[in-house]
Amino acid sequence: MNIINKGEKNMKNFKKITTLILTVMFTGALFAGCSSTQNTATTPNSLDTVKKAGTIRFGLDDSYPPFESRNDKNELVGFDIDLGNKIAEKIGVKAEYITTDFNGIILALKSPKFDAILSALSITDARKKEISFAGPYLMSGQVIIVKAGNTTIKTSADLKGKIVAAQLGSTGEEAAKKIAGTKEIKSYDKVPEELQDLLIGRVDAVVVDKPVGGYYIASKQDQYKVLSPQLTEEPIGIGIKTENTDLQKEIQSIVDGYQKDGTLSKLSIKWFGYDAYTTK
Beta strands 116-122 and 234-240: pairing type? Predict the structure, then answer.
């Protein structure tokens, strides 16, 4: 009798333990399923997230006129700022601009510190392996800037034995490194710093985006000179995290529309002094 009771008790305990284990397993699977569904449905910085937040956050380097810089009131102004405001308006949200060093701007997008990069970002094969792009919204390229009155440097071939400046992490830096025979490539965080060093003779030339070079020539014709032809042809786009396909498609559609209706032409005339969509 005692033996039978013990067996019955053991069996009851076994059933309780089994039931408890199954309950825990089922609950864990249920929560895992919910978590998986939530992760699939909600991607950080997606179009839906942007609309719910009522704000789209653009990352940029604020020292790159005429694309983005600060005026005497410390307000952000430039081609990219106007474009970003128009993109936000089309989506139905407000634009917010978050400044960061250009050299770390792609890492900041991935972190994610902001929703998209709108900072004269050239579309390259290397960058396309890390992020997606909307655009291009502009065709640009790298040019060589020297001091006004310099008659010894006429082409890239004349930079042999010379010190050349470029922005750190930029395609200008990449282009400068490909120039044969240079003495040194000096990398700078900000374009104004390299242009200032050009004026005081610390460097012999600066490699920079064509619209930026054009901007400085327009405002300081007595100090700088842009050489021709330009070193490269580069498409410029808006950087977006690879998984945010809905946001990429939305911005792509908006940019295409603005190019067709002449909005981008008007912005380029305002900031570059020429229609970048009809003039090479």
Answer: antiparallel
Segment 66-122, tens digit of pLDDT: 999 999 999 999 999 999 999 999 999 999 999 999 999 999 999 989 999 999 999
Residue 82: inside a domain, yes or no?
A: yes
Distance, in Å, from the CA atom of 213 to the CA atom of 148, rounded to the nearest integer, reads: 13
**One domain, residues 252 and 221:** no
CA pair distance 6, 242, nearest whole angstrom:
63
Helix (H) or strand (E) holding 248: helix 245-260
Would you mind telling me the total number of residues written for the chain in this entry?
280
Question: Against a cut of 0.90, is the pTM above it?
Answer: no
118 CA to centre of own chain: 5
- Residue in 233, 277, 271, 272 with CA at minimum distance from that of residue 259: 277
Question: Of 170, 163, 157, whose CA–CA distance to 184 is shortest?
Answer: 163
pLDDT digits (tens, 9 = 90+) for 236-271: 999 999 999 999 999 999 999 999 999 999 999 999
Q: Hey, how many other C-beta atoms are within 10 angstroms of the C-beta on 154?
A: 12
For residue 245, the domain's CATH number is 3.40.190.10
